[in-house]
Task: structure prediction
Amino acid sequence: MKPAHRVAIMLAACAGLLGWYVWGVAGLPDFGDTVSVTGTTILHAFAGERHTTNAVTTIVFDYRGMDTLGEELILFISVVAVTLLLRERRDESEDISPEAERAESHPRGSDAVRALGVATVGVTVLLGLYVVTHGQLSPGGGFQGGVILAAAFMAIYAAGNFVVLRRMGPADWMEPVEAAGAAGLALLALGGLLAGGAFFHNFLPPGPVPSTIISGGTIPLDNVAVGIEVFGAMTLLAAEFLNEAGIARVRGRSQDDEG
Amino acid sequence: MTVLECVALTLVAIAATAVVLVDDPLRQSIVSSFMGLFLSALFFVLQAPDVALSMLGVTTVVIPALVLLALARVRDVVPQDDHAPGPEEEAA
Result:
């Protein structure tokens, strides 16, 4: 096929795609339109039924909890797969000579980065815990808070160094943390099955009105479980990659010293 | 469409184009995190703060961090400094 023909076919396909796209966008409901009967019903009922103030978290962890469990398991499985692949590729790499470890344990990077890292760790942890525990009241929840908590972990790396991180051994104890979070949400859903006859049935009392941190029945607990899972997954992922990069760098340095 | 929405949409479009135009993956990871920041602002303007928070965490923290780590990993496998012999020199 001649290049000119190829371009012609490409342009025809693009024009067709553009037509379909404009047609589709033109048919969208206006911003803020109430098109779904279910959505309207839930938005009017959730505050009275669950004593929460955040509709999004209430739907995600209660009325449509099943979807959230699926999403969480996707994250869980993909992180486990990446971890398996990285460990498969890493051979005999755990042993680092004491000299190389000593060289790496010196502070690196600029003072400004280290100071900023130290300053942000505490605040980031606090913000993460707040977002996890207030999901049913204000924007946020387990997913968002879990990512913020994992960001605190990365700030530790920016503030310290690879050897400090290795001593903490996050790659070892983050696995059970991640698994516990994933299992926690599934068990809470099973609790609904046992207590109320339906998976993800909200089997705890909805709590006080006006809403507090314990309002929403199982929703705050679901959020904590997801927060633990996401924190564990993100930290495990980062720790595995850092292990890869860090070990290679420490080894490179010890080879330089020998040479 | 309000002025605020127009500004947010324009910023997203500019930042997204910038991500494509930047060649170096290292710089790209930082530019893309700015794109995520503007996208979070857009979601916030469109009254979806929950989505904005998720977007903020994933695009400004997780993606840049993992891209940087992956790049560090790739550079270990393929040394890019001038001292290391390239594949052609090694073969010769």
Confidence is low (pLDDT under 50) at residues 84-92 of chain B. DSSP finds four helices and no strands in chain B. The longest helix of chain B spans residues 49-77.
